[in-house]
Structure formats: structure tokens, C-alpha cells
């Protein structure tokens, strides 16, 4: 499946997770796991990997080692290719999510393309941190409109990439930042249909697997949040 939208899925997730003016990540989201799921989905839809099911476990299998041209995706494909033992999809999502400087790497690439700006501010007037205010709002607006049409429209065939993006954003609790809880509550059934892949239209096998991978992220995130809560 050839990508038509100008951004990779993980870049769309990053834009949704960042405050436009402050350039900081919204608290209470699990955007890193959504980014991990997004990269896995890209590899599935671009036929670099597929899914091998063994005794109800879903493993990633390498099909093609050819780079896609995105530094982060290509690095993760290389990590999967060079792994000594195969791992399940959910394990790769977790590994990707825990990559050092993941936010800065994704946001930095968006800044290089003129969508964000790299800046600094101070926390408690002591610690300096990098922030990424939005410079060009058009890419994020296009993403939001795609999500809006999918959630609040009535189409029975939604583009597979939009389905995956929506599934990931829903799992990471990013949709409420864009549309608000009340509006989303009224479309709960519709969102569930999209997330379950019921409205994917003429999707390829790879797109369906990517949707399933996105749903799997939704299972990982609550478990991670529960573990984090119990640790405090």
C-alpha cells in the first residue's frame, strides 16, 4: 500500500499529542505507545513485515529489508531484522515506545520540514527543555479533518490509513484533546466500528493487520497505565 498522505502515521500522532502554541506534550496521554504502533503499522502496510500467528501468539516476520526513507522507521526495521529472536507485535510496540529521545526525534524531523519549530524554555526557572511550537498548522488541520469526517460522518468506507490513525489516537487518549469528551461520547458506537475495522472498505490484508496492531496498542496502554498507577 503506497502512502498518499504527506505525513507518516507516527508524525500525525506527534502533532496531535503536542500543544500547538506551547510545543509541549499534553499530559495524561500514552502517545509514545501510539507512535510505536504507528511505526509497526507503516511497516505492515508497506509490506516490510507481516504477521505470523503461532499458538495464538502474533509474531512479526520480516518480508523486505528495503528502507522506506524515513530515519526512524528504517532504524526500527533494522532492529527487527537484526534481532536474535523473533518477538510478538506487542513486544515490538513496547520496544519502539521506549526508544531514547523518541519525542525529540519525531518532533525534530517535523521541525526540519518546517511544520514545527525547535525552541527552549525553563521548568521552575532551573531546568531547560526543548519544546516544539507549531509553525505550519496545515498538516495537523488536514489530519483533524480526516478524523472528523470519519467520526462524525456516515461513510461506510474509510481510508485504511485513517482507520489506523484513529485507532491509535483513540488508544492513546488523544481524540478527547481534539474533539472533547461530550462530542465523542455521542459517537462511541461509530468509533468502535472504525476501531474494529468494520468500516475499512476495500482494505488490503496488510491494512487489516495494521488496524489489528493499532487495536492491540489499545490493549497495551491500559495495562501500562495500570502498572504505573500501582507503582505510585
Topology:
Blueprint: H1 9-17, H2 31-45, E1 49-54, E2 57-62, H3 71-82, H4 89-97, H5 102-112, E3 119-123, E4 127-131, H6 138-152, H7 160-171, H8 175-179, H9 181-185, H10 188-195, H11 205-230
Antiparallel strand pairs: 1-2, 3-4
Report on this model:
There is one protein chain. The chain has one domain (9-230): Orthogonal Bundle (yeast vps74-n-term truncation variant fold). It is 55% helix and 9% strand. It is built from eleven helices and four strands. It has helices at residues 9-17, 31-45, 71-82, 89-97, 102-112, 138-152, 160-171, 175-179, 181-185, 188-195, 205-230, and strands at 49-54, 57-62, 119-123, 127-131. Strands 1-2 form a two-stranded antiparallel ribbon. Strands 3-4 form a two-stranded antiparallel ribbon. It starts with 8 loop residues before the first helix and ends with a helix.
Sum this structure up briefly.
The chain has helices spanning 9-17, 31-45, 71-82, 89-97, 102-112, 138-152, 160-171, 175-179, 181-185, 188-195, 205-230, and strands spanning 49-54, 57-62, 119-123, 127-131. The chain is mainly alpha-helical and 232 residues long.
Amino acid at each position: 500500500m503506497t502512502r498518499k498522505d504527506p505525513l507518516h502515521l507516527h508524525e500525525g500522532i506527534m502533532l496531535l499529542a503536542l500543544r500547538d502554541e506551547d510545543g509541549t506534550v499534553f499530559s495524561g496521554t500514552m502517545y509514545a505507545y501510539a507512535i510505536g504502533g504507528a511505526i509497526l503499522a507503516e511497516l505492515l502496510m508497506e509490506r516490510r513485515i507481516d504477521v505470523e500467528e503461532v499458538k495464538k501468539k502474533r509474531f512479526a516476520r520480516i518480508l523486505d529489508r528495503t528502507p522506506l526513507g524515513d530515519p526512524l522507521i528504517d532504524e526500527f526495521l533494522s532492529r527487527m531484522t537484526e534481532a536474535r529472536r523473533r518477538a510478538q507485535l506487542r513486544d515490538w510496540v513496547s520496544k519502539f515506545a521506549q526508544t531514547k529521545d523518541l519525542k525529540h526525534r519525531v518532533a525534530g524531523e517535523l521541525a526540519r520540514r518546517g511544520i514545527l519549530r525547535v525552541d527552549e524554555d525553563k521548568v521552575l526557572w532551573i531546568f531547560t527543555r526543548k519544546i516544539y511550537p507549531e509553525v505550519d498548522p496545515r498538516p495537523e488541520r488536514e489530519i483533524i479533518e480526516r478524523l472528523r469526517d470519519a467520526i462524525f460522518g456516515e461513510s461506510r468506507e474509510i481510508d485504511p490509513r485513517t482507520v489506523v490513525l484513529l485507532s491509535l489516537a483513540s488508544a492513546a487518549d488523544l481524540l478527547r484533546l481534539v474533539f472533547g469528551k461530550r462530542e465523542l461520547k455521542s459517537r462511541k458506537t461509530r468509533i468502535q466500528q472504525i476501531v474494529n475495522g468494520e468500516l475499512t472498505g476495500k482494505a488490503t490484508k496488510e491494512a487489516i493487520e495494521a488496524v489489528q496492531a493499532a487495536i492491540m496498542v489499545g490493549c497495551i496502554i491500559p495495562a501500562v497505565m495500570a502498572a504505573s498507577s500501582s507503582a505510585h
